[in-house]
Amino acid sequence: GAFEQAALFYLLAHAGEGGHACPVVCTAGLVRALRAHAAPELREHFLPPLLETDYEAAQRGAQFLTERHGGSDVGANRVEALRDGDAWRLRGEKWFCSVADADQFVVTARPGGAPEGTRGIGCFLVPRRMDGAVNGFRIRRLKDKLGTRALATGEIEFKSAVGYPIGALEDGFRIAAGVVLNTSRWLNALGSTGLMRRAYLEASSFARVRRAFGRPIADFPLVRENLAVMKTEEQAALASTLALTELVACIDAGEATDDDVTAHRLLVNANKFATSVAATAVVRRGIEALGGNGTIEDFSPLPRLYRDAIVFESWEGTHNVLCAQVLRDLARLDAVDLALERVRAVLPDAEEAEAVETALRELEPRLRRSVSDEAFGTLHFRRQLDTLVRGLQAACLLAEGHEPAAALHARRHLVPGYDPERDPDYPDLLDRVLGDDV
Question: What is the C-alpha separation between 153 and 165, in angstroms, rounded?
């Protein structure tokens, strides 16, 4: 189920092994697409090897969507698909192909005669090999990346590669974005959260044993503040991602209402944006906690996790693209009320809940202006979406009984002009957040 997948992937992400984690995500997206949309004969042939539990025999999936001239503008993609009997032949280049060594590829391509834009995009399964031979493609080069360096990412050129449509051709973009990419965005957030948790474990354990000026550095107030912020950000990201996971599980079980489907559509994009930004900042704080040791590659995993977190920010949609998508969905689906109600529905009757409610009341007219005023919204909505997700995170933390973390999170992100210097409770709040960790 969705929660078991989420838990296992969250734990896997602690290790920071992008070479394993990314293939898991891409394979999960392909599995979901085949189950939901593929013709029976396609599903029966290609799904079993993806579900194989023998590591040596199991096949892995990949998703090749990005093109050099299109990037996030998938509607501008030019890879074409030409009919060849019961199959199709794909021609053209994909620019950013992670898991380039996969066995099955999800590839977007435009069938001959299809309209321009996303309406003309088809979604195809391309096997790596046909009858033992490479299936009409070549890897032009592997990318030399900032992060996830253990993962093979290449530029791939298709030359009459055989492909099979997943679902109806006219549904291609909906399948690629709504199933494949949204699976990746959900799991990307769990990956970002796992990186944060590992960074916190590294920093807090180091602070307990590292001594300076006669005492453990965990005794110094600024170190404690840094650790408390790291812990709170990770708990907040996990809370919102588990709220998203609940929607995924509800949809998988066929129990979702129309409002649940809309809430998932909004949150899967918003949560990926917020958690990936937070992950980079939290891992950076972990490096600070270790001082010079935090920059040494063979002393801790933090330099590698930091590079990977930056890559996570761009995977499955850049921040601006995701924020723009949420803004379009809020307008098209008339969903501002739903978005606010979903946060309020989580809020318990607790002392810190008023800070969240106050932030929502202040946010609401700004959201409505962004939806109705395109010039205003395209410039300012990203900040508003960050506040909305932070509000959800604080509400979830309160509902789960993590009141110290919820209080620190709300004060840092939701209370305008909050000044720790004027808050006599601030030092004690940091201690309550950290508990027995340090």
Answer: 24
Tell me what the mean pLDDT of segment 183-193 comes to: 97
Q: Which residues contact 110 (CB under 8 A, 6 or more apart)?
A: 77, 78, 79, 80, 81, 120, 121, 122
Give, rounded to a whole angstrom, the gap between the first and last alpha carbons of the chain.
Answer: 35
pTM above 0.85, yes or no: yes
185: alpha, beta or left? (left if phi > 0; alpha if psi -120 to 50): alpha
Nearest to 359, CA basis, from 416, 318, 311: 416
**Residue 42, amino acid:** L
Supply 105's token pair: 């590829």
Structure tokens at 63: 């998703």
* Measured distance CA(381)–CA(369) in Å, rounded: 9
* Phi, psi for 161 (deg, rounded to 5): -75, 140
What's the number of CA atoms in the CB half-sphere (13 Å) around residue 132?
Answer: 0
Among 331, 37, 415, 15, CA closest to 199: 15
Q: Name which of 158, 16, 127 is nearest 61 in CA terms.
A: 127
Q: What does the alpha-carbon distance between residue 50 and residue 44 come to, in Å, rounded to a whole number?
A: 11
Average pLDDT score over residue span 221-241: 98
Whether 124 and 107 have beta carbons less than 8 Å apart is answered as yes
Q: What is the DSSP string of 145-209?
A: -SS-TTS-EEEEEEEEEEEEESS-GGGHHHHIIIIIIHHHHHHHHHHHHHHHHHHHHHHHHHHHH
Mean pLDDT (the chain) is 96
Decide if 413 contacts 387 (C-beta within 8 A): yes
